[in-house]
Design a protein that fits this description.
Blueprint: H1 10-20, E1 34-39, H2 50-53, E2 56-63, E3 68-75, H3 76-81, E4 85-88, E5 93-101, E6 107-108, E7 123-126, E8 132-133, E9 141-150, E10 158-163, E11 165-166, E12 168-176, H4 180-186, E13 188-194, E14 198-200, E15 211-213, E16 216-219, E17 225-232, E18 243-248, E19 257-263, H5 264-271, E20 282-292, E21 295-300, E22 304-308
Parallel strand pairs: 1-10, 8-15, 12-20
Antiparallel strand pairs: 1-4, 2-3, 2-5, 5-9, 6-7, 7-14, 9-11, 12-17, 13-15, 13-18, 16-17, 18-19, 20-21, 21-22
Length: 313
Amino acid sequence: MRRMNLLKTPAVAFFLLCMFMTGCINDDLSECGVSLHYLYTRNVDGVDKFTPEVKKVNLYIFDSDGVFLDEYQADERQLHGSNNTVKLNLPPGKYNLVTWGNLYADYELPVFEKGKTMMTEAVLSLRRTANTVTSQPGHLFFGSLSEVEIMPGLWKNQVIAMDMMKDTKKIRITAKGLSREELAAKGFSCRITSVNGDYKFDNSVGSSDTLLYIPASSVDEQGRMISDFVIMRDLNDASTRSRLIFTYHNPHGGPDVEIKNVSLTELLLSLSKTKDLDIEDYFEIELTLDFTSAGATITIKGWGVIDTVYPLG
């Protein structure tokens, strides 16, 4: 009886090729390897918005003990051409998978060493100068799966879903009640501070550094001051200690006056439709300003009145 050379059998040769490749992106769900399918449904609409929102993924693979094994990257062309699916070629076993989406120059990671770097040691950081953020970082996404088991079986096609979460928030603060000239004379501004610049690979806060966010500011045709922020996650439990700070810059050369310092987390939750800051990613905050020689009154739409006794004349 003639022996069959398995290495020359097309199906087996194709399987072995898949097993020994370090990683690939395919246009369909073929019969080799494991498919990791990306979604982004954790938004206010509850529908998958991965394709319009995420342009790139960096996938980090750790073994069951949390030891770094490998990294795969896929850009927009590869992702969207493969139905947002990454083909993994991993032997049977258990793995921890962590993905960062849109990991561009606004963010930085340490150097990973295969077989050495531990998942518990890895931290992603928002780039900043002296803990001050003066630009608006691109939107970042996070996803993870723990103890994922790759099942044995020569032809078993295993599809694993990973639902991403947006790790950034856009906040627009619109202040009205004063003219352009009055805004310039009063020197009113707002800032955000938060302990949210570093994240571990379970998406928990990774340091205690307090960041100062400086907005992109402008005055529109109606004389309203617009302050646009992009900040990192604000957690529902207020553990990021996020604050919204209103400041008066004395036009006569005196010291700046902190008009009010309020909890940003409390404010956002009060304005939230879902009451879940992990889902909502855009907030509009409307202020009405009333400056007098006796002080200032700030009314936040939907929240109430904030006043001060500081003389601002």
